[in-house]
Write a structure and sequence with these properties.
By secondary structure, the chain is an alpha+beta fold. It contains 16 helices and 15 strands. The protein folds into 4 domains: about 180 residues, 2-Layer Sandwich (Beta-Lactamase); about 120 residues, 2-Layer Sandwich (Beta-Lactamase); about 130 residues, Reverse transcriptase/Diguanylate cyclase domain (Alpha-Beta Plaits, 2-Layer Sandwich); about 90 residues, no CATH class. The chain is rod-shaped and about 140 Å long.
């Protein structure tokens, strides 16, 4: 070998090394010039095509078990994103599986590893080289492929160039994916923040349902989102909102739903579900039809939306409840003031039909409840809960010392009235309350009078059932005429004096003369009827009447029984109120 030939070889090697370095520098410059992966890949295709003098360059990405064309020479750029091969197909698949570069010098289609792809016009190519694109972890993330139309022996330096280029492509892919993931997270957090602001400003439940389902669907790039509320009575999940409308609903039932039922054909992992909880209270669930590539982070985002939705729901329900309470309060105040038009307007807002049969209740704490009685708010909560079971459509106006209630009843039939009276009797005794009940009414015109009746029944009841119970206005008898009478201004005649003596006798002896006399006068002097009401023998009633005449200096057969009855009721009111004072 002559000195000149050695020099030429060294000069050629040096030139190829310089060209390789220049090519790698161009690749590095292209990779570092942008985070737009598609732009980087197009640049690498151009550089590789020019540096290796090949006719076509292709870059595939491994997505699942498919190799998808992500970049190609201009002649085949129309196939980007459209063409894909199985990881077990062709020379490209073989390189991906084995992580080994492959070279076919000529007659490429005769190689058993090849698969003919008409779109790539592979019958025009003779030579082919493919190298794997490996991530830092060693996993295959793609394949770079070169085709030439004429047979060609790819030198080692070309293969080395392709290996280095594939390594740079891997770095570009990972950097771009990291950038895209970071950008996605930032966008997700931005969207979540914006959604949080929207949810914080919503005050109506229906608007909240719309905002949550639409926001969650957009946040996660999902095709559908639904929100379900848990029915506290049945334990079933009920569809409350959906975006878009018309998505097949889950079959409402107690417990967690089967996520596959959100949309036909969705697999077991095809739906993300997050519970709506506020403290220990379970409100429902939020579901989204998962998009392709859903991650644990997406589940976390959905959980964050569900938590904010739960807080928003409790706030909306509180606002609605307070608004409804204010409307009902205004209705009661208008009825009490006799403002018929205002009462009817407020009743309409509260969805209260005053034209249907109803009655009023007036509830106060019984005088004998004592200092150990439960706090008033707790008593009111139990009172409303028990009465709502009797009258689901009842309306309440709760104050710091009393509760007013409008109770719709099925009909004006006295039976419905008696059932409510019986239930209130038990409730008053259990809770230490006096429940006054008005007569049955219709319309707003007489609402003021009926509310007064309930309040009067309670006022008298505080004197008659000091430990708690129920008093109906129609049962008050003569008390109805005395309830608003100033007791100190009432006559203090001999009948009043006689009654005072009986009350004092009962107090000292523990007798029941006053109760017996009141029942006897109420029954118009019928001993047998009074005995039945007092649960004693008629002879016992007769003996008590004789003692009453002796103690009070009365002759019942010759007295003005109406005046005596009024004096008795006045005295009872006076003594009970004096004891309470």
């Amino acid at each position: 070998m002559t000195v000149q030939s050695v020099a030429e070889r060294e000069e050629g090697a040096l030139r190829r090394a310089q060209e390789e370095n220049e090519t790698l520098y161009a690749v590095i410059k292209t990779v570092s010039s942008s985070l737009d992966l598609d732009r980087v890949l197009r640049g690498i295709v151009d550089i590789a095509t020019s540096a290796t003098e090949c006719h076509a360059c292709f870059i595939y990405f491994l997505e699942g078990d498919r190799l998808v064309l992500r970049a190609a020479s201009p002649r085949y750029s129309r196939l980007v994103g459209e063409l894909d091969l199985g990881a077990d197909e062709g020379l490209t698949g073989w390189v991906a599986r084995t992580k080994t570069p492959a070279f076919i010098r000529e007659d490429a289609l005769s190689d058993p590893r090849m698969k003919y792809v008409p779109e790539l016009e592979e019958e025009e190519f003779q030579s082919m080289v493919a190298v794997p694109v490996l991530a830092k972890s060693g996993d295959v993330i793609g394949v770079v492929v070169l085709h030439t139309e004429a047979p060609r022996e790819f030198e080692d330096d070309v293969l080395n160039l392709l290996v280095h280029t594939a390594s740079l492509v891997a770095g570009a892919i990972e950097n771009a994916q990291l950038y895209q993931e970071t950008r996605r997270r930032v966008q997700a957090l931005t969207t979540l923040t914006e959604l949080s602001q929207v949810l914080a400003s919503v005050t109506l439940r229906e608007d909240l349902y719309d905002a949550v389902t639409r926001g969650a669907r957009e946040l996660l790039g999902s095709d559908a989102c639904q929100i379900y509320r848990l029915d506290s009575d049945t334990g079933e999940l009920v569809l409350a909102g959906s975006d878009p409308d018309g998505v097949p609903a889950l079959r409402a039932r107690p417990g967690e739903p089967d996520p596959r039922e959100l949309s036909p054909g969705v697999g077991a992992d095809g739906v993300l579900v997050a519970p709506l909880t506020a403290g220990d209270e379970r409100l429902g669930i939020l579901c989204v039809k998962a998009a392709e590539g859903t991650t644990d982070e997406d589940a976390g985002l959905l959980g964050a939306v569900a938590n904010q939705a739960a807080v928003g729901l409790k706030k909306a329900e509180l606002i609605e409840r307070l608004t409804a309470e204010n409307i009902v309060k205004d209705m009661f105040d208008a009825l009490a003031a006799g403002s018929i038009e205002a009462a009817e307007a407020k009743a309409g807002e509260a969805r209260c039909d005053l034209s249907r049969p109803h009655l009023f209740l007036h509830v106060e704490r019984a005088p004998g409840a004592g200092d150990e009685a439960a706090p008033w708010p707790d008593v009111v909560a139990r009172l409303e809960a028990r009465l709502r079971r009797l009258c689901p459509r009842a309306f309440f106006d709760s104050r710091h010392d009393r509760v007013r209630m409008l109770a719709p009843i099925a009909s004006a039939d006295p039976t419905a009235h008696r059932e409510l009276r019986s239930a209130c009797e038990a409730l008053g005794g259990d809770e230490g309350l006096v429940v006054g009940i008005s007569d049955v009414d219709r319309g707003a015109g007489s609402g003021r009078r009926r509310m007064r009746e309930a309040a009067d029944a309670t006022r008298i009841g505080r004197s008659l059932v000091a430990d708690g119970g129920a008093v109906s206005y129609e049962e008050l008898g003569a008390y109805r005429y005395l309830v608003h009478l100033e007791l100190d201004a009432a006559p203090h005649d001999r009948y009043r004096q006689s009654v005072e003596e009986l009350i004092e006798y009962d107090r000292r002896r523990g007798a029941q003369l006053v109760e017996t006399l009141e029942q006897y006068l109420s029954d118009r002097g019928r001993v047998t009827t009074s005995a039945r009401a007092l649960f004693v023998h008629p002879n016992t009633v007769r003996q008590r009447l004789e003692r009453i005449e002796r103690v009070a200096s009365l002759e019942l057969a010759n007295e003005d029984l109406l005046s005596l009855e009024l004096a008795l009721k006045l005295a009872r009111l006076h003594h009970v109120r004096a004891e309470q004072g």
